[in-house]
Amino acid sequence: xxxxxxDMVTIYVMGKxxxxxxDLTIMKAMEYTGHQFRRGAGxxxxxxxxxxxxxxxxGSYKLLxxxxxxxxxxxxxxxxxIPYSPxxxxxxxxxxxxxxxxxFLEHYPEIARCLSCNTCTKACPQDIMVMDYxxxxxxxxxxxxxxxxxxxxxxxxxxxxxxxxxxxxxxAQLARRLHSRYIVGPAEHVLRRAREVEEGxxxxxxxxxxxxxVDELQRRYETRM
Amino acid sequence: xxxxxxxxxxxxxxxENFEISAIASAREVGxxxxxxxxxxxxxxxxxxxxxDVMHYLAxxxxxxxxEEMVGEGLVDEGRVVTLCAMCYNTLKRADAVVREDEEKMQxxxxxxxxxxxxxxxxxxxxxxxxxxxxxxxxxxDRVVRPLEGLRxxxxxxxxxxxxxxxxxxxxDNPQILERLIEALGADVVNIPFKTRCCGAYHIVQMKEVxxxxxHRVLDQAVDAGADMVALACPLCEYNMGSRQExxxxxxxxxxxxxxxxxxxxxxxxxxxxxxxxxxQNRPDPRPLLKERGIPLEVS
Amino acid sequence: xxLKPENASFKAKVAELSGESLDxxxxxxxCSSGCPMTxxxxxxxxxxxxxxxxxxxxxxxxxxxxxxxxxxxCEVRCPRGIDIANVMEAxxxxxxxxxxxxxxxxxxxxxxxxxxxxxxxxxxxxxxTA
Lengths: 225, 299, 130
Known about the structure:
The complex is a heterotrimer of chains A (225), B (299) and C (130).
Chain A: E1 8-13, E2 16-21, H1 26-32, E3 52-57, E4 64-67, E5 77-81, H2 101-107, H3 119-123, H4 130-139, H5 142-148, H6 157-161, H7 168-184, H8 188-198, H9 203-210, H10 214-222
Parallel strand pairs in A: 1-5
Antiparallel strand pairs in A: 1-2, 3-4, 3-5
Helix pairs in contact in A: 4-5, 4-7, 5-7
Chain B: E1 2-6, H1 16-28, E2 32-35, H2 57-71, E3 79-82, H3 85-100, H4 102-111, E4 123-126, H5 127-134, H6 136-141, E5 151-154, H7 176-183, E6 187-188, H8 207-223, E7 228-231, H9 234-242, H10 244-250, E8 259-261, H11 262-269, H12 286-291
Parallel strand pairs in B: 1-2, 1-3, 3-4, 5-6, 5-7, 7-8
Chain C: H1 5-18, H2 30-34, H3 45-53, H4 64-67, H5 73-77, H6 84-96, H7 110-115, H8 118-128
């Protein structure tokens, strides 16, 4: 990382101007400027959805969304963090539900307000077709809603932007749960392994490992295949 | 002939019987209904406010899908067929507005930046219009089981006929369903309330009012000697059919009256017994059909 | 007819939002006689138009505008070509756009929501929520 002037860019963090190295992510740039993340930082690897950020760039009216730990800064970027977007997850008993449109309408009736405006899709940092999965749920197509929302991190950027005040990721979560519970069914390989454990298939092996000293354990670990 | 087909949300859930019977009977008269890919809810009602742009996105997006289908050669014409009366009206009205209002069209295009701009080349139509254009004799030709002795009262509801300029037939005395019923060999029972509103969306919070309005139509139909009511709107079917328990509760002596989609009668008359969808209808029309000598071999 | 400024501005808003020529109405009552929902209304449809013509904002407090089922029977009957249902919608919009919801989603029965066709819920919310 070179600190010469030509490799620095100007960013605005919640209205305050800073010069930061051009190759940093938003998160690293904010920490470079002395901000400390107490909320809004998690895995730092683009997977947990904690660091939802909205930003604009100079000269463009577009309001965009990103994950601070993934997005590299740009010159003239105006940044604000959304460490939490208000949302209520409804309580439901998965055992009592069915994979149908009515289930979504029952728990999240606001889904009926969807305007198909696609603002959610435009806000998504994971390039998910959010509008499409909301519409799939509204039609009762649980499989499609589950498939399309697979990469969702629950970052909340779609919920913040939605003009109909829907929280798409809650819909997605319900869809995926219904899909796996009622359409895909239990994971056979997991159940099989659990049975094997209960039957004591691994008792001997684990017993042996428990009896080893630290050096032998270390050696075995380092030479594992 | 392959035509683009817009189902609407309800045709995939409570009105599956409408879709199943429509696709099968349309095929019988040479129309292959090709479902739009990636379609979205049309919004159910047209946004009347003059300054509205947001509520145009949903219907226009579907019309873009139609144009995409045409461009990819998946259909023979850019005439999108609807079954649900509310979808028909919503798509048609939105289309009419943007074609006349250049500014609104531009706003819609700008907002939907990720879509190919809507070219304004789609015609929104209803299956009944297609059948009328085809000619009733062509429909009658496919009948293998004339519905003789069945007395059917056609019911149009609101959005197939109104407002002026957007109807599929004459606003005061439409005859399109009557011609269809005759072509299928059944008897038409014409009732004055065939164009009267069933209460529509008020079923959500004014259930009793809807029951009252439904009762008036059904009562008039029965008084005029009808065995059943045939219609084209899934909301009307729900209000006047599935919710008859409510009507029974409020009106002493009310006997259930089967309410069916016109396409279900077509499927029955065409001998497509597996595609009538009657098992989904409440009340069940099959006992009555059996009584009239039109039993279903496949139950 | 000369209206007070606040009435004139209300009337202008209704006319602009609906695009209808309110002054064409000569109170024939054709819309009211055809309307299927009048039993649930406090003001008849023709009265609502009269209120709008006079720019009387209190028409926004009527039950009528929410009871209308947008069936357009009034529109086809009007001898002067006014779309009364459209005026009803403009009045609803004026109320809804000031952060008003006629129905709150938590008041809806969950069991009903599960069983109702989507078309009913969607159109109901479109007409009654902001």
